[in-house]
Design brief:
This protein is of the alpha/beta class and 285 residues long. It is globular and about 70 Å long. The two termini are 39 Å apart.
């Protein structure tokens, strides 16, 4: 006889995605308003149902197993579909405006699909997205300009929100390998305040490599055009490095710390903004 289909418990899937996103059982329990023992039991039930170990953990760190890593994207899609159905049925008239700030490169690469799925679930909620440099976003968030802000985390910035994205940074230049020259290394950077600019300069100073700012541009497209023209080198998230540029990730170029994207949320947060915040954290993890 054919095996009966397995119907996953959405609540268990949501607990798994929350833990995977926050990387910690304690924070996940606080986010979901439950006891840590409760969500531990939920994960055990989900693993038993799937016949797979999804998470490993010690006293501080939670890590995805290979099976958990493979399951996570599908789990997020399942929650997206579930929440869209529920939203249309229970909150068809939810409306309002949500003001979101985001770095240009991240908004260009990652956000459109995430926001499109949210708009499908909540068509009456208007999204106002502003792109700016991270430190400007933080200052404007503190001044009340945004309900939510995605910012690149830097030690000197009080960005206490949960991490929603992390990716490695690499050096990028055109055909010329500027490192082998004897002149100060020319940089293509955004104007202050810019996290990537600071990362590049700090890394070069640590390596005791002379440098100079050869081109300053607040636009990602303008910076890439300058790099392609051979005016200097810059740093980018690895996934954003264009295929027609050279990527340097290791000696003799100095190493770069991964960039982190944190989500800042106003307090109090309107119901539409709370829905978007939850959607972003679940979608990006």
């Amino acid at each position: 006889m054919p095996r009966a289909p397995l119907n996953l418990d959405i609540d268990l899937v949501r607990t798994f995605v929350t833990i995977a996103s926050l990387g910690n059982f304690t924070r996940a329990a606080a986010r979901m308003g439950r006891q840590q023992s409760t969500i531990s039991l939920q994960i055990q039930r989900l693993e038993d149902a799937l016949g797979q170990k999804l998470l490993t953990r010690n006293s501080r760190v939670v890590a995805l197993t290979p099976a958990g890593d493979a399951f996570l994207p599908s789990a997020r899609r399942l929650l997206d579909v579930n929440d869209e159905i529920v939203a249309r049925a229970r909150e068809p008239d939810m409306r309002g405006v949500v003001r979101l700030g985001a770095p240009e490169d991240f908004a260009t690469r990652r956000l459109p699909e995430v926001l499109a799925r949210f708009s499908q679930a909540y068509p009456a909620i208007a999204l106002e997205v502003t792109c700016d440099l991270t430190l400007n976003l933080v200052n404007r968030f503190r001044a009340g300009a945004f309900d939510l802000a995605l910012v690149k985390r830097e030690r000197s910035v009080d960005a206490k929100g949960p991490r929603v994205w992390r990716e490695p940074l690499v050096w990028v230049s055109a055909e010329r390998d500027f490192w082998r020259g004897e002149e100060p290394l020319p940089l293509v950077v955004s104007p202050d305040p810019c996290v990537y600019r600071r990362r590049a300069i700090d890394a070069l100073d640590r390596a005791r490599r002379p440098w100079r700012v050869a081109y300053t541009c607040g636009s990602l497209a303008g910076s890439l055009a300058a790099v392609k023209a051979g005016l200097g080198a810059t740093i980018l998230p690895r996934e954003m490095a264009p295929p027609d540029l050279r990527v340097f990730d290791g000696k003799p170029w100095p190493s770069l710390r991964d960039t982190e994207i944190a989500l800042l949320q106003a307090d109090p947060l309107s119901p539409p903004a709370a829905r978007l915040g939850d959607h972003i954290m679940r979608s990006l993890g």
